[in-house]
Amino acid sequence: MMLQFLAIKSLRAALTMWLVITFVFIVLRISGDPTDILLPDDASDAVRDFYRAKWGLDRPLWDQYLSYWSALLTGDFGISLRNNLPAWEMVMDRAPKTLLLGGTALGFSLAIGLPLGILAAWWRGSSLDRAVMTTAVFGFSMPNFFLGILLILTFSLHLRWLPSSGSDSAAHLILPAFTLGTAFAAQLARFTRSAMIDVLTKPYMTTAKSKGASEARRVFAHALPNASVPIVTILGLKVGELIGGAVVTETVFAWPGLGRLLVHAVAVRDLAVVQAILILIAATMVATNLLVDLYYGWADPRVRVGRTKGVRA
Amino acid sequence: MTPFLKRFLRSAALAALIATPGLAPRLAAAQDRPDLVVAVNTLPGSLESIEEQGNVAVRITYTLFDSLIRRDFLSDGSGTSAALVPGLAESWTRVDDRTMDFKLREGVKFHNGDEMTSDDVAFSLVEGRGRGQAPLFAEAKTYMDSISHVIALDRYNVRIVSKKPDILMEQRIAGYSFWIVNAREYLTVGALAFARKPVGTGPYKVVEWVDGEYLKLEAHDDYFGGKPTAASITYKIVPEVSARIAGLVSGEYDIAVNIPPDQVEVITSYPDLKVERIVLDNSHVLRLFPYGPLADKRVRQAISLGIDRDLLRKALWEDKNYTPNGHQLPSYGIYVEDFPAFEYNPDKARALLAEAGYNGEEIVYRLGLNYYLLSLEAAQAMQQMWKDIGLNIKLEPRENNSQAAEPGAHILPWSNTHRFPDPLGSFVPQWGKDSGVQNNKKYPERTWNAPERFNALQNVLLTSMDNAVRKDAYREALAIWMDEAPGTILYNPLETYAMRAEINWKPYGLYYMDFRPYNLTFGAQ
Asked: The whole model's pTM is what?
């Protein structure tokens, strides 16, 4: 039964990947000619023709598409038009930096957002609740580029405690990770609060209280597991976003990750690199969604049972 | 950046200044020779000197390589001078109209320790690399294809022969594409590996290149032009202007490139920072496609006459740049000094439009965003100026130049780099009979059918060995170009570099960043 569930999910994942690759392939090629973008603006037509032929852009689209796929199926993601390096190698060079930044930011948001959300829900309506929620509104309404520049001005320019850009040391990680993590911490706090409030009003919480369970037990053993399903869903989405979603933060802090590579590759129509990154992002999204689905089944037996036995929970 | 953010940045920067009286003298503290850190917007994809000739590439490769003859941009202190001085060749002689002999300097060392010889020169200019039927890199072909062949006469003597009489051979050899590479290294590692870690004779050599992060060069102490003045130069990618400025103020960087004119005030408010500005050997141009409403040349003339260039320069460039008189630069060997300036004359423009029977037909001005500095701002201002003379211009911003070039446009922004100080360095390749302007294969309706006389004059410019004759031909060709108006010039843009005050370094009119000992020193002069 689980096998059927997995098979359907995997098939859907494969279809998603195919759609992403095809869509990106076509859109990139009809929305800009790399020879117009990578070569100097006063390059002659002969030079443009030379590079078009060299990069295979003079061939019909379907022909390019077929050869892209035949290479892709052997694990060849193509060569960057800009610096002749293998696209996959370039992507893998940047991935650790993005994971480091994204992982730190995620850890930070979990450490801040989750407890604050729980506390706000538990003391709902209190001044603590209001303080947390007000801060959260600020946190997620502040655009990353603004917060980033604000932090640079304060901590690099004014106080001179932290470096403004680059990724040479642990100190370089602090400002971008804080920038990236703040919005999500705020989002997570709000989300956790509402999920918890939803659960706290359930009859079984009253039952737990009436049978004398301690406060801690009621929160961690009864409420949190039930509230975790929506929280994990949003976490799953975030993990996928982390791979390519730090575009703005990476640019502001000159953090050499995938987001910046993607922006630059899209701007100059470095086709192979854009495709490699998007395939990676899509694969991460698909994989995390799959994991989240599996988590539902584990955390909430009704999902698994409902699917296999056809009974409504 | 939004105006709010700009003001915010400026006031915050000022606040920081007040709060921190003494800035850490990073450079002064360094013992012996300092390590220089340059914040750049981006790095090129390749350091093969003839593969990439865009501004992000040449600002670095100029430091890695030398040419036989060197253009001395600073001979008059301007940064745009065109005087020629010995480079890798200590002397040269014209044998005839097509032939030049070069006597190489002896004992010049490449980064790998090899001595530079005539074999390296012959290899660098060999057919198949940057010129000829099927060159490895096509971009250099425009500048190198006049070469017929190169003969290594002996270890230190080399002969270069052009296909046709070439009055500009010296300037050509001092310019784009004629940098000398180490033949042994090139042939051993291959073109691709060479592009990542090239070996030249320049004052600095590549030690580390982390893609997307930085490129580190180290002093080449055997440099024939003297011991380099910095221990190393690191080019760090910092895409955001505000981050480049912040890093400069906080002492992380020593020089920052591509500073917009409106940020100069922020930088000069710090006592330990300064800016160096240069008007580039590049002209921002509008192409006016002679079809539809622009088929009548009087409409094209009116478009040019309706632009108040003085106002544009004042509003956008703080009046620090200039508009050349015609398609030329003062540094040209055959500069036509008395050629009339571009005129702003709304009355004449209105009269021309009436004469041409222009009746408010829509004219599409398309532009790719984030390519030419301040091009959108200029376009918006011009749209108003044109409206005043009765032109109906529709502005269509697009993501990139490729999208802007799609069918339907009548006006496109463009830029022409004056790659060497002669019409053959820009005017002829960009507007001449073999140019895309006169032969537009993709959009035939955009083709400018130049008068026969114009193309005949171009032949004089190409083949005559008498500069007086060439100057007369150029004057006449420029007049035809102005009258036909297949395009017009707005101004030459300004490039601004910000740096620590104790750095003595001057920028050039081309994008080269010259860090040779004569142009990079530290401390009070």
From this structure: 0.85
